[in-house]
Design brief:
Layout: E1 4-9, E2 12-17, E3 22-25, H1 28-38, E4 43-45, H2 48-55, H3 61-65, E5 81-82, H4 94-113, H5 116-125, H6 136-153, H7 159-172, E6 178-184, E7 189-196, E8 199-200, H8 205-208, E9 212-216
Parallel strand pairs: 5-8
Antiparallel strand pairs: 1-2, 1-4, 2-3, 6-7, 6-9, 7-8
Helix pairs in contact: 4-6, 4-7
């Protein structure tokens, strides 16, 4: 996995340095050069050496254009809705509730103790050998269980551990939803959620629609 991801939000490029666990933007002049170099690319990766070359005043941007490693973004659907059953009306198996609670608490502890790149690498490697489409019942159960656990743990500041837990449990069941990290500017903000096609699974669409994806696993 590349350590340096970027996305374009309007005319600004925003970067996520996974190993340093930080977001940053370029000064205006460098930002203009970078946006010009990536053309129509909305999201991708770039090596630290490539970015350093731009910062040191690379005059020939044509060479830079050919070296930017672009992630497959067009194949990933833009979020348009959410899977939000009424958690009070969905009967949740007690065992699943326990699994979700343990997964959320474990993920919260791991986020505090482990570097971001390690956590995301585990997500990238943990794909079912034979993925299968999720059933509506499984989606209802998972969504309902997570909403009930979130009432106890709270949502603020927990989007990353809750999404990690959602993806881990889903993939243990043989399903492959995607973990999405998105950013916005003016004011700056970052958010994390789980998505299957255009459907947001562990959050409301209204909460994620203002964020531009910068990393998808």
């Amino acid at each position: 996995m590349s350590s340096l991801h970027f996305c374009r939000v309007g005319t600004r490029a925003v970067f996520l340095d996974i190993r340093a666990n930080r977001y940053f933007a370029l000064p205006e002049k460098l930002n203009t050069s970078f946006v010009s170099a990536i053309g129509d690319c909305v999201m991708g990766t770039v090596s630290p050496d490539e970015l350093a070359a731009l910062k040191t005043g690379m005059s020939d941007l044509s060479g830079f254009k050919g070296t930017v490693s672009v992630q497959e973004f067009q194949a990933f659907a833009t979020a348009t809705s959410d899977h939000a059953p009424d958690s009070n009306s969905v009967p949740i198996p007690a065992l699943l509730l326990m699994q979700v609670a343990i997964a959320c608490f474990s993920a919260k502890l791991l986020v505090r103790l482990c570097p971001l790149h390690w956590l995301l690498a585990r997500i990238g490697q943990n794909h079912p050998h034979k993925p299968k489409p999720p059933s509506t019942q499984i989606q209802d159960h998972l969504a309902g269980a997570f909403r009930r656990v979130q009432l106890l743990m709270g949502k603020d500041g927990n989007c990353l551990p809750h999404t990690l837990a959602f993806v881990w449990l889903s993939r243990r069941l043989g399903y492959t939803p995607r973990l999405v990290i998105g950013v916005r500017i003016n004011p700056f903000g970052a958010h994390c959620w789980c998505q299957d096609g255009p459907v947001v699974l562990n959050d409301h669409f209204e909460n994620v629609r203002t964020y531009q994806p910068i990393l998808i696993l």
